[in-house]
Amino acid sequence: MRNLVLFLVALLFALPAQAQNLAPHRAAYTLSLGDNRGQVAALEGLLAIDWSETCQGYTLNQRMRFRMSTAEEGAVENDIVFSSLESKDGRNYRFSLVTSRDGSVVEELRGNAILDPDKGGKAFFTTPDVEMDLPPGTMFPTAHSLLLLNLAEGGERVIARAVFDGATLDGALDVTAFVSNKLAPEAALGARTPPIGNRPSWRVRMAYFNPDERTGTPQYETSMRMLDNLVATDYSFEYPEFSMRAKLERLEAVPRPNC
């Protein structure tokens, strides 16, 4: 539940026109229980995403608040706050994650990471004090999302890369994305849909694997309708025992910087 939004530096700036089409935005989603394969009896909540562009990079602020009820624990209030800053050259990244349950912090991750496109990189967690290597080819989330857009536009339908987002201590995860054919624009909010929400899109399903675990089973999966400007109009988060759905309720454009 921590890697939500989750999303080749060389390819990113070989195709700058695609990056210019990105839409900084704020979006709000309602959360609900999808398939229940375990003891989860109910789930409801909200997801807020604020994705912005600066002259130097991209910022993400994301908050997920939901109540989940299980037979074992009863109702538990969960609050997950994640933020990141990623440089436009894909080489530098800062991140912060705070997870609370019933008002008490149960996990806190903070740090930064650096990448070299050819040699890999390093992640430096300050909370807790952990340092780890990132293998060659690792990408940060926005660079990965840009790559997905560019390759999907070019007709690729299966895209596998290593991605580091700082939301776990597992390091870079192997992410395999399965991309549909391109879909026609669809107004997700009907007459309330702003222009940035009425764009061509793809259905994208991503499976996340820990490279140290050779089971062939992903830790979790996500799926979304990804517009060609990086707006997502719905999400599904798939875990072994249940799935969680996110339905878009509000979307607004954020001004781009005048650099």
Outline:
By secondary structure, the protein is mainly beta. Helices cover 9% and strands 54% of the residues.
Radius of gyration: 18 Å
- Major pleated sheet: 14 strands, antiparallel
Question: How far do the termini sit from each other?
Answer: 35 Å
| Number of extended strands | 14
Query: What gross morphology would you assign?
Result: globular
Share of residues in strands: over 45%
Uncertain runs? 1-17
| Helix/strand order, N-terminal first | HHEEEEEEEEHEEEEEE
Q: Please list the strands of the largest sheet in the order they lie side by side.
A: 8-7-6-5-4-3-2-1-14-13-12-11-10-9
Structural class, judged by helices and strands? mainly beta
Mean pLDDT: 89
Figure out the total of helices.
3
Helix content class = under 10%
Q: What does this protein structure show overall?
A:
There is one protein chain. By secondary structure, the chain is mainly beta. The chain has helices at 9-14, 16-20, 141-153; strands at 25-36, 40-53, 57-70, 74-87, 92-101, 104-116, 120-127, 130-134, 158-163, 173-179, 201-209, 220-227, 232-238, 242-253. Strands 8-7-6-5-4-3-2-1-14-13-12-11-10-9 form a 14-stranded antiparallel β-sheet, covered by helices on one side. The longest helix has 13 residues, at 141-153. Residues 1-17 have low confidence and may be disordered.
How do the strands and helices of this protein lay out in sequence?
Layout: H1 9-14, H2 16-20, E1 25-36, E2 40-53, E3 57-70, E4 74-87, E5 92-101, E6 104-116, E7 120-127, E8 130-134, H3 141-153, E9 158-163, E10 173-179, E11 201-209, E12 220-227, E13 232-238, E14 242-253
Antiparallel strand pairs: 1-2, 1-14, 2-3, 3-4, 4-5, 5-6, 6-7, 7-8, 9-10, 10-11, 11-12, 12-13, 13-14
